[in-house]
Design brief:
With about 220 residues, this protein is of the alpha/beta class. It has helices at about 5-10, 40-45, 60-70, 90-95, 105, 115-125, 140-150, 165-175, 195-205; strands at about 50-55, 80-85, 135, 155-160, 180-185, 210-215, 220.
């Protein structure tokens, strides 16, 4: 199902991760948080990305939305690389966090002590017929950044919505995977429930000259050089 357009993408997997998956429409669950914010379409129209990297995918709602936007704007060769462990965060296991609902642990679909959320994501992508756009990369964000760097894969648009406790590292790692004139989009900026996000972004902006746009707890940082 995947139609990779270069050996760099093919080398991320030794076989098609969607092969022989029979979509179960009754199990489609694209629950997410602000996954269809208008800024996604604004940035996709502006950057016309050939490659998008998303760090923190959950069930795939925002990746699916971005893929549908690429279809809408005839960007049919765009690839969206989804980086996630699909194991949840510490909040899910400790029932902690300012916005964490204890029921979210059920979304992990833990079987024999191990989350099965990845398969919810795969089923969602297959059901939406977006396998030609979305490429899963089930790794911790720092490991995935190293893999992508080594394989020479860079992006025009990068969306960071992973483990907020690791955001400072993610910003630094993925900024160097961002093409010139590309945009880094960060979630939960300015949200009083996630003050560390705003602090980490502020620290980063002290070190770089970049244009920023803020829209509903998302900040877009455009790389000029």
């Amino acid at each position: 199902m995947l139609k990779f357009n270069s050996e760099k993408f093919l080398s991320l997997h030794t076989s098609d991760p969607y092969e022989d998956w029979l979509a179960d429409e009754t199990e489609v669950d694209t629950q997410g948080w602000f996954s269809t914010a208008p800024i996604f379409e604004t940035l996709i129209k502006e950057t016309k990305p050939k490659i998008i990297i998303e760090v923190g995918t959950w069930k795939g709602a925002s990746a699916i939305h971005m893929a549908e936007l690429c279809q809408k704007h005839s960007l049919l060769d765009t690839k969206i690389i989804c980086v996630d462990t699909w194991l949840g965060s510490y909040e899910h296991f400790l029932d902690l966090g300012p916005q964490c609902d204890p029921s979210w642990r059920n979304d992990l679909k833990i079987t024999h002590g191990y989350p099965q959320l990845y398969y919810t994501f795969i089923n969602n992508v297959v059901s939406k017929k977006l396998t030609n756009f979305i490429i899963p990369l089930p790794l911790p964000s720092n490991t995935a950044a190293k893999v992508l760097e080594t394989k020479g894969i860079t992006a025009d648009l990068i969306y960071l919505d992973g483990d907020h406790s690791n955001l400072a590292s993610d910003i630094n790692n993925y900024w160097f995977l961002l093409n010139r004139n590309g945009t880094l989009l960060i979630d939960d900026y300015g949200d009083e429930n996630w003050l560390s996000v705003t602090e980490d972004v502020a620290d980063f902006l002290l070190t770089t000259n970049a244009e920023t746009t803020i829209e509903r707890h998302k900040i877009a940082i455009k790389r000029k050089q």
